[in-house]
Specification:
Blueprint (H helix, E strand, L loop, with lengths): L27 H7 L5 E2 H5 L7 H13 L3 E6 L5 E6 L1 H4 L1 H29 L1
Antiparallel strand pairs: 1-3, 2-3
Protein name: Transcriptional regulator
Organism: Actinoplanes palleronii
Pfam families: HxlR
């Protein structure tokens, strides 16, 4: 079993949260990071992704499954258990997400200054 996900995995100041572009949608990159070290249950994903609604997380996981980025495995147990895991295609996104996060970390000051200036002009 893999280690528990930290509820602070996505700090509000994390570059991922202010990324000016999304990989698929707002949550896909974060789900990819949550699944980096192995399969996770829906409830485990909700810990670091605490600001996403269950409906939106379910839609994101469904879209990722549709696109071949994750697999959904349902176990015939009582209570039922479902796990999500990255496919090789989904795992290939890890380098892309890391590059986007590095870019955001390097340019965070400029990005936030531009947003503030825009808000002042509007």
């Amino acid at each position: 079993m893999t280690a528990s996900l930290s509820p602070d995995m996505f700090d509000p100041a994390c570059p991922t949260t202010v990324m000016p572009f999304q990989i698929g949608d707002k949550w896909t990159a974060m789900v990819v990071l949550c699944l980096e070290h192995g399969p996770r249950r829906f409830s485990e994903l909700r810990v670091p992704l605490r600001t996403v609604t269950p409906k939106v997380l379910a839609e994101t996981l469904r879209a990722m499954e549709r696109d071949g980025l994750v697999t959904r495995t349902a176990y015939d147990e009582n209570p039922p258990r479902v796990e999500y895991a990255l496919t090789p295609l989904g795992r290939s996104m890890l380098d892309l997400v890391a590059a986007a996060r590095a870019w955001c970390a390097e340019h965070m000051g400029d990005l936030l200054a531009a947003r503030a200036a825009f808000t002042e002009r509007s």
